[in-house]
Specification:
The chain has helices at 2-5, 26-37, 67-72, 74-77, 79-92, 99-103, 106-119, 133-143, 148-158, 161-173, 187-220, 225-237, 326-342, and strands spanning 10-14, 17-21, 53-56, 59-66, 183-186, 239-242, 245-249, 257-262, 266-269, 275-278, 282-286, 294-295, 311-312. The strands form three sheets. The chain has a six-stranded antiparallel sheet with strand order 6-7-8-11-12-13. A five-stranded antiparallel sheet has the order 3-4-2-1-5. It has a two-stranded antiparallel sheet with strand order 9-10. A hairpin with a 5-residue loop joins strand 9 and strand 10. Helix 5 crosses helix 11 (187-220), helix 7 (106-119) crosses helix 13 (326-342) and helix 9 (148-158) crosses helix 12 (225-237). By secondary structure, it is an alpha+beta fold. The protein has 13 helices and 13 strands.
Amino acid sequence: MWQLLNSDMEILVESDFIYLPLLFDPAIENEVQNLLRQGRPMKNPGHPQSKTIITHQDRQFVKALSIHSVLENYEVINAYDYNHLRKEFLRKYQLTREVDGILLDDTLKTILFQVMPYFIRKNRGLRRKKLSDEEILDLIGAKIDIPEKYYKEAKTFRHVEPLKAILKGLESQKPTFNPPGNGLLSTHQLRDWFHEAVHAKISAREHDRLTRALQIRLQFSQAKPEHAALLLYIADTGSLEIDGFGFTRKSAYKVEYFVYKRIGEYTLKDYYARSYLFPDCRVALSTYTPFRPFVMEKYKHPFLLRHKSGQEICMKHFAPPNEFTAENAIRILEEGLTALRYGYDARRRNGYHSLDRTWVHIPTIDFEEYRI
């Protein structure tokens, strides 16, 4: 489709279909004549039916693409061009960042306001008190340094009048999808029309997103500027770590996260009561299935099959949940941490490997470097 729009030719539009000119070739001519014997071609381009072959101004055209289908699926057909057009639209209205969409995400809210408070250290006076969302944001803000630029952006974020004006402008435009008229068009004319149609589609989609964005900005219009700055920082970076607890966004395009807790250094004993000092690592879970604890770093442990990153922790009786909730996330992390720290039984040498070398000669992972 992109190559067609950038070519230099005449095409025929008829009943929501693009017809391409047939080349003059004896073999093609014979095939066309065979098709035409089965029924008369449509000579009138305004006819409501859609034929495979159309004769127009002594030229023959063959049906190629459905305009409506291409437009509806253009985001998948040509993701690069669609994203380029979308960025042009957002830049026009100074909406190139998608912070609001991330802030509206329930998964991030669950991590911030339900899972994180369980693992981070509170002030002594608040230790037994359940913190409100505002108190949690105060606590996070006291533990991290937020770059100054996010405080500046927070002023714009909390000022909702420009966003209201943009929404009003989009509503007044009332973008709609109007197919091009039937008849001959140059590919340049079709390209201009197609870009306007894609912009109309983007406009309608962005209108819904901006309506939701306005709702969350109204919530923060009376909130502390530092809270807005903190949320802008988190939405932009996609990660945060406090007191060994943290999360990081998987990619810039998906609102999915790895949530983790650092285990710190710990010791295990082997069959002969010798101690092994294990280094810190991050025990994590994904907010997308499977909901099992794993180790983010390249790491070795009796409960890890290999010495590499991203390994699930072997826990024989662990039953993974089927959804991501705060309670499930806390349980998964706690059980993963407990398994690494306390799950190894030196007498039974349970797990994939044993800390001490046994008389059975089986190639295994060695832990001698950790022995103290």
